[in-house]
Design brief:
The chain is α/β, with parallel strands linked by helices. It folds into three domains: about 1-195, NAD(P)-binding Rossmann-like Domain (Rossmann fold, 3-Layer(aba) Sandwich), CATH 3.40.50.720; about 205-290, N-(1-d-carboxylethyl)-l-norvaline Dehydrogenase, domain 2 (Orthogonal Bundle), CATH 1.10.1040.10; about 295-430, NAD(P)-binding Rossmann-like Domain (Rossmann fold, 3-Layer(aba) Sandwich), CATH 3.40.50. Helices cover about 40% and strands about 15% of the residues. It contains 17 helices and 14 strands. It has helices spanning about 10-20, 35-40, 50-60, 70-75, 95-105, 125-140, 155-160, 175-185, 200-230, 235-240, 260-275, 280-295, 295-305, 330-340, 355-360, 395-400, 415-420, and strands spanning about 1-5, 25-30, 65, 80, 115-120, 145, 165-170, 195, 315, 345-350, 365-370, 380-385, 405-410, 425-430. The chain has a six-stranded parallel β-sheet with strand order 3-2-1-4-5-6, with helices on both faces. The radius of gyration is 24 Å and the shape is globular. The mean pLDDT is about 95. Bound molecules: nicotinamide-adenine-dinucleotide (NAD).
Length: about 425
């Protein structure tokens, strides 16, 4: 099939590349000229495991091309995927400016049998809006489907190649059949292909992210209770997880969720509810618990240094909002870094992939370290934000030799409190008694 992918960001690039890898002709379109020039030169603008090899392989085979020419990309494709960003507006609603612009610009170039598919996460009713807008512009009906994306950054290729399910929202069964054909190579292991109305498909994406965010905020609130009541959230987690109605997935306490999806999608769903005169009580609570959770490491550090971190050298391990990505959008590390800088501390930071993105935001206000161990040199404390594998089994003796202080604030519960005590550290984690 001939596919145009409009918007070559995390989702567009991964989706376009995977479709090319299964034998389709894919042209990725973006307005960002630098990004397209880099991709044409074989440089991948984001860090995503396995992506680079796939892009290079499919570009070399000629099945994957890149352009800034929307008209050209659209006019030679049958399936037009929309994967532009839908960032949050000031009131929390999804900003559809880019998507609307693309719809208007591409309309005159659509072929007679074109199928337009939204991959971006868009508010319920957007599919209908596009359908009506194209009808208004072209004087005819164009097939518009919704195909929300559930991939996780850091495991995007695997998630796309072996999806738990594929959801499509369509008006006509024939359109579902075209998309089913496109996805068939990825659904060989009996993964379900679920066709439904566009509204249900659009909602499915928000409901999935809302529930996942709710689980995170729920376990974080329980972790905070554990700390106050003298319990250990790890034991409680085990105690509840074996109940098959509950399970273990997505119930890890931490310093809150971040990234480009959960925060914005929870707020967008709440905003949609409010527009309908409804009161999204759970979504508002999930968001507010998460905002609070991003400050728990700050509070622990503040308490430990009795409110004065001036001149303290604080090593910070992990800046990305989660491991295996360089994405720092709404990352909990930002809350910590802002606090440290505003209060005269000197952060010495390390992240295997996200340092450049952090540098673009903070410039030379931070000390950037090549290795996690280097970040500890002379540090009064270590704070951990992201559970990169490399941080799981460090050389604690080496750490002690390098550090000035002997205290670790662990926002991801990487170590066992008792062992940390034995190794000579004061250790504060999430939802567990401190080891002092
Ligand atoms: P992104 O910011 O990485 O990429 C968006 C791309 O669209 C950018 O490259 C931008 O230059 C391009 N763009 C903007 N306006 C354009 C225009 N007029 N014409 C062509 N290109 C244009 O965003 P993303 O993370 O890939 O997210 C895209 C959508 O997918 C969002 O709606 C997001 O909610 C959704 N989504 C993201 C993820 C994720 O993990 N990142 C997962 C599922 C769904």
């Amino acid at each position: 099939m001939k596919i145009a992918m409009i918007g070559t960001g995390y989702v567009g690039l991964v989706t376009g590349t995977c479709f090319a890898d299964s034998g389709n002709d894919v042209v990725c379109v973006d307005i960002d000229e630098e990004k397209i020039a880099a991709l044409k030169a074989g440089e991948i603008p984001i860090y995503e495991p396995g992506l680079s090899e796939l892009v290079v392989r499919n570009s070399e085979s000629g099945r994957l091309t890149f352009t800034t020419d929307l008209a050209d990309g659209v006019s030679r494709s049958q399936i037009i995927y929309l994967a532009v960003g839908t960032p949050p507006a000031a009131d929390g609603s999804a900003d559809l400016t880019a998507l609307r612009a693309v719809v208007d610009q591409m309309a005159p170039h659509l072929t007679d049998d074109a199928v337009v598919v939204t991959k971006s996460t868009v508010p319920v009713g957007t599919n209908q809006f596009i359908f009506e807008r194209l009808q208004e512009l072209l004087g005819r009906e164009v097939d518009v489907a919704s195909n929300p994306e559930f991939l996780k950054e850091g495991a995007a290729i695997d998630d796309f190649m072996k999806p738990d399910r594929v959801v499509v929202g369509v008006r006509r069964a024939e359109v579902a059949e075209i998309l089913n054909e496109l996805y068939r190579p990825f659904l060989r292991t009996d993964r379900p292909f679920l066709a439904m109305s566009p509204q249900s498909a659009e909602l499915t994406k928000y409901v999935a992210n809302a529930l996942l965010s709710t689980k995170i905020s729920f376990i974080n609130e329980m972790a905070n209770l554990c700390e106050q009541m003298g319990g250990d959230i790890n034991d409680v987690r085990r105690g509840i997880g074996h109940d098959q109605r509950i399970g273990f997935a997505f119930l890890f306490p931490g310093v809150g969720y971040g990234g480009s999806c959960f925060p914005k999608d929870v707020r967008a769903l709440a905003s949609m509810a409010r527009d309908l005169g409804l009161d999204p009580r759970i979504m508002d609570a999930v968001d507010s618990v998460n905002q609070h959770q991003k400050t728990v490491l700050v509070d622990k550090i503040k308490n430990y240094f009795e409110g004065d971190v001036t001149g303290k050298r604080i090593a910070v391990w992990g800046l990305a909002f989660k491991p295996r990505t360089d994405d720092i959008r709404e990352a909990p590390a930002l809350t910590l870094l802002d606090y440290l800088l505003e209060n005269g501390a000197q952060p010495q930071v390390h992240d295997p992939e996200a340092s450049e993105n952090i540098r673009a935001r903070y410039g030379n206000k931070l000390v950037y370290c090549e290795s996690a161990m280097d970040a500890l040199n002379g540090a009064d404390a270590l704070a951990i934000n992201t559970e990169w594998k490399a941080y799981h089994n460090p050389d604690f003796d080496d750490m002690k030799n390098r550090m000035n202080g002997r205290v670790i604030f662990d926002g991801r519960n990487l170590y066992e409190p008792e062992q940390m005590l034995k190794k000579g550290f004061s250790y504060y984690s999430i939802g567990r008694p401190p080891a002092l």
